[in-house]
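To: structure desk
From: M.T.
Subject: fold request, one chain
Message: Could you run this one when you get a chance? Sequence is below, nothing fancy, just the single chain.
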Amino acid sequence: MHPRELGSTYANRPSMSLSGPSAASARESAVPDAHAGVPLLARIGNTPLLRLDRVGSNFSNIEFCAKAEWFNPGGSVKDRPALSMIQAGLASGTLKPGKTIIDATSGNTGIAYAMIGAALSYPVKLCLPDSASHERKRILAAYGAELVITPGDEGTDGAIRKVHEIVAAKPDKYFYADQYSNPANWQAHYRTTANEIWEQTSGRITHFVAGLGTSGTFVGTTRRLKELNPQIHCASLQPDASFHGLEGWKHMETAIRPAIYDDRLADENLPVSTEEAYRLVKRLAREGGLLVSPSSAAALLGCFAVAGRIPKQQHAVMVTVFADSASKYLNERFWDED
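Reply: Done. C-alpha cells follow.
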C-alpha cells in the first residue's frame, strides 16, 4: 500500500496508508472529520514563517525568515520526523500492538515520540544523555516515557550505543525507530517543511540555512528545495567543537555519523560558536521578543555568516528553522551571565 500521511497537515502531499487495529486508531485520532476542533496529530506541521526584521536590520538587502517549530504540539521540529517514522513502522508492520517504541535522543525527538506514543497508546522507552536539560526530562516523564539515562559526556553517541545494547537483548520487544538511520526522518521534511517554505515565500526563497543533528531537517528540506529551484543556496551548520552546548546538533568530524546524512548536498558547511549562540538567545528575547532555544539562535548566526558574503546590491530571501523555543532551557546558566 502507498503511505498516507495522517491528518490535514499532509494534505496534497504523497500519501501513506495504514492497516490493522493500530492504523485504525491512528486514523481516528489524527484525521479531521465533521466534528468541531482539530485532532492532536493533525496539528503537526504547517508552522508559521516568522519575518525577522529587527535582528537582521544590518543587512538591508536580505529578508530573514524562520520557521517557528515550537507551534507543533510537541513543541519542536522533531514532531515531524517522529510522526513520519512511527507511520512508516505502522505501515510496514514493524510497529504493532505489544511493541515498545525505543530510540536514542537528546530530548526533542524523544518528547515527540512520547507525545505521539501516548496519543496512539504505545509505550515509549528512550536512552537520553544526562546532559539533557532538566525540563526535557520532566516533560518526558510527564508523558509517561521510560528513561534510560546515559553519561552526559558521551552525548547522543552514548545513548545510541545503549539502545543497540537494549534492542540486541530483546529484539522482538522493541520498534527501534532509529532516527539517525531511518529515511522516514528526512522524508518528513522533504514532504512537509520544504514545501511549506516554498509556499510561504511564494517561491522567492534564495537561501536555506539549517543545523546538523540527525541531519534530517537539512537533508530532506534541501533535497526538495533543490528540485523546486536548483539555484537555492543551502548551507549546513554544526558546532565549532566536539564539546558544545547546542543540544540536538552534532560535530560531524568527531560524532557517530548519521546514516541519513549526505554531505554532498550542502553548498557550504559552517561552524557555529555555542557562546555566540547564547549571547544571541538573550538579544533575540530582549530586542526581538523572540524566546528561542540556543540551537535556534545558532541557526540565525549561520544565516548572518552567509549573509555577510552576499553582495549589497543582491536581494535575498533567507530561511532557517527555529527548532524550538527557550522554554526547555530557562534553567541554563547563560541567562545570568553578561
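Reply (cont.): The chain has two domains: 49-76+189-336, 77-176. Let me know if you need anything else for the meeting.
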